[in-house]
Write a structure and sequence with these properties.
- With 121 residues, the protein is α/β, with parallel strands linked by helices.
- Helices cover 45% and strands 28% of the residues.
- Strands 1, 2, 3, 4, 5 and 6 form a 6-stranded mixed β-sheet that branches.
- Helix 1 runs parallel beside helix 2.
- The longest helix is centred in the middle third of the chain and has 16 residues.
Length: 121
């Protein structure tokens, strides 16, 4: 399956980046990485990565999520990962990704958390 992505705004200041298919080593991973990097460089400071339609992830894909968390932190932003299911959720749990970036069951809950962070700041 080909990796597909889509970017949309949930709020004026919350960007949702959807990834569908497989996130593994290869050209599609580099394209996803470049797109996310551009979003951050262009000023995105609240980012939700939606994995609800992701069917598989390998260590390179997990590394991309970790790298993105670091980039967001360096730019003063917040990242949340949402919607991981089945094998993808198990892989993220296995590597304790939740210690690096918050994991949410749904995009809606991730957006609520980001909005609450802003209200509490």
């Amino acid at each position: 399956m080909i990796t597909e992505t889509k970017t949309r705004q949930a709020d004026p200041d919350i960007t949702i980046f959807e990834i569908a298919g497989r996130l593994n080593l290869g050209n599609s991973l580099m394209a996803v990485e470049n797109t996310i990097r551009r979003l951050i460089e262009d000023g995105t400071r609240k980012l939700v990565i939606d994995l609800a339609s992701l069917t598989a992830i390998d260590s390179s894909g997990i590394g991309l999520l970790v790298t993105t968390a670091g980039q967001m932190e360096q730019h003063g932003g917040k990242l949340r990962v949402a919607g991981a299911r089945d094998g993808v959720a198990k892989a993220l749990e296995l590597v304790h990704l939740n210690r690096i970036v918050p994991l949410d069951y749904s995009v809606e809950s991730a957006c609520q958390e980001l909005a609450a962070d802003a209200a509490g700041a």
